[in-house]
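Structure tokens please, single chain.
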Amino acid sequence: MKLRLAFLYIVSAILFCLIVVLALSNKNKVEEEKKEEEEIQFESGSTIQLLRNTTGQIETLDLNYYLLCVVASEIPFNYEYEAIKAQAIVARTYLFNKIKNNKEENADVCDNYAHCQAFTDISELERIWKNKGFSQEDIKQGEEKIKRAIVETQGEVITYNGEIIDALFHASSPEKTEDASAIWSQIDIPYLRAVDNVEDESYDKRTSTNVISYATFKNTLIDNGYITDLSIDDFKNIHINEYTKSGRVKTIAVGSYCIKAENLRSLFGLNSTNFTLKILGEDIEFNVLGYGHGVGLSQVGANTYAKSGKKCDEIIHHYYTDVEISNINSEQMKRGEI
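Here you go.
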């Protein structure tokens, strides 16, 4: 009897082990299949034509690979997931607006951040991130987070009155974003209005200071055709002439001249037009708040709102006035169906 019970116990134990092994095997198989499925699904099946400005070559890229490189170039991968999803929708919207309204010659878009969106191949970004001290695990998790954000927002773009918008964005606008009309010759863009904004004060470029000598200031303005001369007395009497509705500097008075703050930002590398002026002997000091032109989505703000629990659609509706999130693919875009 004891032998029979021992035998049954041994058989039961073996069967139990077999069941556990099979269960684990099936679980691993399912996870592997799921992983493979996710990797296959990342490719959109649609392509875009990218102009490489350095070589003049045009490359055909999968749409989602292009977005991966753009989003990874434009926003830190360690930002909150909902902020990255918002950036993915913005990047897709920006691309499709470009395809519809302002394509490159023989291409859909270029890789020059000053003309289109920042684009750096993911292999190069991995090298940059590694040099910044990120571990291989951090980098892999960051890439996967961006890929998931692109897949989860597949086909989503921002529209206004049924038209795809010009989805402008920038790094940081503490307190308030800017109205597009204040930047671009009074052009009214109803969905790009100044809105109140909350941002994490720990952002390392929240404030910055630029000190420029009288000689450099004068010669730069002369060389670029903004003035013909500037005395030291006029230099010392420089002052802010006008503010925008959002509180940024619109123009400054330079002797008898009136110079746009946005032109100063470009000429002297100021981080934004939200600045104060101080004359220090024969130097001018710009104390600057924020980073970028200030129009549309603020990335630091988006990350701050995501930390507070806001979802990507809430973030988008905060920064773009009276818009909708619609669904479209690149083939529809090229056929002019939106």
